[in-house]
Amino acid sequence: MSANTKNGLKIPAWLKRREWLLVVLVVLTYLFFNSQAPSIYTFPKLLNQTRVYMVDVGFMAMGILLVLILGDIDISVASIAALSATVMSVTYNAGKGIPFGLSIILMLLVGAACGLVNGLLITKFKELFPMIITLATSTLYRGIAYIILKDQSAGSFPSWFARDLGYGSINILGLEFPIMLLCLLGFIPFYHVWLHHTVSGRYLFAVGTNLTASRYSGLKTDRIKLTAFVVNAMFAAVGGFFLTSRTGSVKYTIGTGFEMQAIAVAILGGASTSGGKGSVPGLLLALILLTALKNGLMLLYNDAFILNLAVGLLLILVVLIPNITSSLNARRNVRRQRMSLAKT
Q1: Domain ranges of the chain
Q2: Strand, coil or helix: 251
Q3: Which of 87-91, 198-202, 316-320 has the lowest mean pLDDT?
């Protein structure tokens, strides 16, 4: 028994989880920016800014999480969001085309088709890296959006879409909660239960942990990967839907760079590029952390370069800390083993 255990100082395993590090970072970020700008960096104003920094990226990150759990990556999600939103806007055509409800369904189908293409290419051409494939399809999907719209923008959506969903709020306990934030928060519990407490969710983790063992165990690994890429792309389309409701119009450039933010959120939340790891609570905390950080930096500096720099440094920090901790623990265990062998 170690000295820490004898003295009752052993840290419980649940306190070593990534989520607690994120909780600490969220609190420190809020306290720092609140001390710098107490009149403008407040919880109610931060809550209002979640519609700008959190919802659309959040849905994309939920899809990316599935792909990362499998040990793959998809950098075409922002382009899928742009193409899906483009199809939704042009088919609705400011009320002159098909009904808006059908346009939304068509948007989801376009997203699913893009994910199907990605999944088929990745499962059929295993010698190609998923990053290379999705980089190519990213250019393809955004190129199609450009062919449809050129340099024009499309808008004139139903009033409830931009007014109520995009900028509407509901008063709860004296706080104004954006409707789109409530949509995200309302969906996350179902997503958590599915991913962490169902057979299909466990299959994802199994395939990401050991692809060969999963295949020999009878799992249809290619079908699981294909399904994950389709679902991921549909999440990207939903992200484009909420982004469009906030901006009020669609251009082929919409969502540019959001794929990196979505990947950053998933990795910050505990996902691993090697597969087999992922956490929905961690993803939500990472979203809150990035929202608090982005809003604070934009209020103080209003500089996109500083914003991207800070997000990159934060990503490196959160990824490195657990690895450094694991390395130190491994060295400590080796040292203890050597000491015990020396005593014998």
Answers
A1: 48-321
A2: coil
A3: 316-320
CA proximity to 232, closest of 57, 104, 69, 65: 65
Mean pLDDT of the region 317-326: 68
Six token digits for residue 11: 């840290």
Tokens 């990035």 sit at which residue? 290
* Mean predicted confidence (pLDDT) in 16-36: 85
The pTM assigned to this predicted structure is 0.87
CB atoms within 10 A of CB 65: 29
Q: What average pLDDT score do residues 119-140 get? A: 92
Angle at the Cα of 162 from the Cα atoms of 161 and 166, rounded to 5 degrees? 95
Instruction: For residue 170, report the phi and psi dihedrals to the nearest 5 degrees.
Output: -125, 130
Rg (CA), the chain: 22
**Residue-level length of the chain:** 344
Q: At a CB cut-off of 8 Å and minimum separation 6, what does 223 contact?
A: none
Encoding tokens for residue 130? 């998923």
Contact 256, 77 (CB under 8 A): no
Indicate the burial class of 136 (C-beta count within 10 angstroms; 0-12, 13-18, 19 or more): middle
Give the pLDDT confidence score for residue 1 in this predicted structure: 43
Q: What share of the chain is helix, strand, coil (3-state, %, to 5)?
A: 75, 5, 20
Cβ atoms within 10 Å, residue 230: 22
Question: What confidence tens digit (pLDDT) does each residue in 270-282 have?
Answer: 888 888 888 899 9
Please enumerate, as own/partner, the contacts of 136-142 that have beta carbons within 8 Å and a separation of 24 or more. 137/76, 137/79, 138/75, 138/76, 138/78, 138/79, 138/259, 139/79, 140/79, 141/76, 141/79, 141/80, 141/82, 141/83, 141/114, 142/79, 142/82, 142/83, 142/252, 142/253
Tell me the two tokens of residue 65: 């999480």
